[in-house]
């Protein structure tokens, strides 16, 4: 009887084996497909920097990597053909930020959009979510730099929200800072180099004075 039970168990195991193999192959194919899709958004090659030919790698993410974006904003970005460039320091999806850029308490978005070789800094206000304002723009290959010990250049443009308190603290060493701001600014940074604070006031974007 024990021998019969073993034969039945062995039969069941061999019957399941093709199914298990097929499932594993399917999972592996999905992983490979996902990895290939991620790589397809990246760009690598060579370009000239200061008269020298250098290699570069720019990592980008599709708009749907940022599920918190309002539908109207995602639609506008996809219509532009946007991919979201990631800095060489990135450890998680970045360069899409939410803050109160329009006025206190508003829910607005800022995005770096890479399309057709150009990167635009776009802002979407909650009161007009499908309409983008272009705050800054640059050829993508002008926003790369060498980092660490690697000889490969990476993307070096990043954005972050800046609270009114942080604006005040940053301006404390400046001779020409104005009155204290009441909503968020947008930090526009070249890594390890320069940061600009963009601020929306009186119907227009201005650059806040910061100490050198």
Biggest sheet layout: 5 strands, mixed
Strand content: 35-45%
Q: In angstroms, what is the radius of gyration?
A: 25 Å
Distance between the termini: 87 Å
Measured as a percent range, the helix fraction is 25-40%
Uncertain spans: 16-21, 25-36
Q: What is the count of DSSP helices, taking H or I runs of 4+ residues?
A: 3
What is the string of SSEs from the N terminus onward?
Answer: HEEHEEEEEEEEHEEE
What would you call the structural class? alpha+beta
Give the overall silhouette. globular
Mean pLDDT: 85
Number of strands: 13
The overall number of domains is 2
Key structural traits:
single chain, 212 residues, 5-stranded mixed sheet, alpha+beta, 4-stranded antiparallel sheet
What does this protein look like?
The chain starts with a helix and ends in a 5-residue tail after the last strand. The strands form three sheets. Strands 1, 2, 3, 8 and 9 form a five-stranded mixed sheet that branches. The radius of gyration is 25 Å and the shape is globular. Mean pLDDT is 85; it is low at 16-21 and 25-36. It has helices at 2-40, 71-80, 164-171; strands at residues 43-49, 52-61, 84-86, 96-99, 108-115, 118-124, 132-139, 144-146, 152-155, 157-162, 185-190, 195-201, 204-207. It is α+β, with helices and mostly antiparallel strands and 212 residues long. It has two domains: 1-40; 43-207, no CATH class. The longest helix has 39 residues, at 2-40. The protein has three helices and 13 strands; from the N terminus they run αββαββββββββαβββ.
């Amino acid at each position: 009887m024990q021998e019969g039970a073993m034969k039945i168990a062995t039969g069941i195991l061999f019957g399941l084996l093709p199914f298990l193999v097929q499932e594993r192959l399917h999972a592996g194919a999905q992983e490979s497909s996902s990895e290939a899709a991620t790589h397809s958004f990246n760009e690598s090659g060579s370009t000239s920097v200061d008269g020298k030919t250098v290699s570069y790698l720019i990592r980008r993410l599709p708009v749907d990597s940022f599920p918190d974006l309002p539908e109207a904003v995602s639609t506008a970005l996809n219509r532009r053909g946007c991919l979201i460039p990631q800095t060489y320091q990135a450890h998680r999806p970045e360069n899409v930020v939410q803050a109160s850029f329009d006025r206190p308490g508003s829910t607005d978005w800022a995005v770096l959009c890479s399309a057709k070789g150009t990167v635009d800094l776009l802002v979407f206000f909650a009161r007009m979510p499908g309409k983008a304002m272009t705050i800054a723009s640059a050829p993508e290959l002008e926003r790369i730099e060498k980092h660490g010990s690697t000889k490969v250049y990476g993307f070096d443009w990043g954005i972050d929200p800046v609270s009114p308190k942080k604006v005040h603290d940053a301006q404390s060493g400046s001779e020409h800072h104005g009155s204290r701001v009441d909503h968020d600014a947008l930090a526009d940074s070249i890594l390890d180099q320069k940061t600009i604070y963009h601020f929306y006031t009186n119907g227009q974007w201005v650059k806040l004075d910061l100490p050198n």
